[in-house]
Amino acid sequence: MSIRVIAIDGPAASGKSSTAAAVARRLGWAHLDSGALYRAITLAALDNVAETAGEGSGSHRPAWGAQQLVALAEDLPVRLVLVGQVFRPEVAGVGVEDAIRSPRVTARVSEIAAIPEVRHWVNVQQREAVGTHPQGVVVDGRDIGTVVFPDAPLKVFLTATPDERARRRLAQRGDRIDPAELKRESDALGARDRADSTRRVAPLRSAADALLLDTTQLSMDEQVARVVALARQRLPH
Predict the structure, then answer these.
(1) What DSSP state is assigned to residue 50?
(2) With contact defined as beta carbons under 8 Å apart, do 151 and 2 qualify?
(3) Rounded to an integer, what distance in angstroms lies between the CA atom of residue 191 and that of residue 21?
(4) Whole-angstrom distance, CA of residue 88 vs CA of residue 53
(5) Sign of CA dihedral 89, 93, 99, 105
(6) What is the rounded CA–CA span in Å between residue 156 and residue 140?
(7) Dihedrals phi, psi of 156, to nearest 5 degrees
């Protein structure tokens, strides 16, 4: 029997999480944001790994060893907890939904997500979570359809222009959307795209059998409706 997973991938600020959450609500399924788990591990590392100064550099960077990070995630623990129909991240038994969205976490999460051992650990957590919810789970991230759930019966890859993604990100944060700020945010997203697309392990790319959905000109309701319609065709109740 096929797993009941909808995999939604795409670059930063493409609307993955918002779309996935809305699709899950419409279908009565659970929602899992894989990025939240990477962010939770990053938060745990920032709060618990002692900083070391590079010799003669005058700068401080956390000494993040792969096995140390995995052990930290296991021991604290960092985990996914089903709250209602949403898998939410916890660190040491405390919900961290707000804390993981801070700029200091955002600045370092790509670095953490590029570590193979961390990716393997996160993938195991996601598969275990999905296994506890046979009704169905909508999972969003950057390698869900290519690596985590390559057999998912429905895969969607969301795209949008860099400027549109930047505008959405600024609006989400409540920041002023002027040309200079828009360019800064667009450049930052472009750098994140390059880092995610060129990393050695599980680079950001569309699965060969994924539906490509450009959301630049679509409203949230329109893109959600398209995914829900496909889900009802391929995964009937």
Answers:
(1) P
(2) yes
(3) 26
(4) 34
(5) negative
(6) 9
(7) -130, 135
* Helix spans in 93-219 (H): 103-106, 109-113, 116-131, 162-173, 179-198
- Phi and psi (nearest 5°) for 92? 55, 40
Cβ-based neighbours of 4, under 8 Å, separated by 6 or more: 29, 134, 135, 136, 137, 153, 235
| Per-residue pLDDT at 92 | 97
Tokens of 14: 């493409």
Read off the tokens for 145: 């359809």
pLDDT tens column, 90-124: 999 999 999 999 999 988 998 898 899 999 999 99
Cα separation values, 7 from 62, 72, 81, 85, 223, Å = 33, 28, 19, 17, 14
181: which 2 tokens? 């700020």
Interior angle at CA 210, CA 205 and CA 214, nearest 5: 80
pTM: 0.89
Which tokens sit at 62? Answer: 């956390």
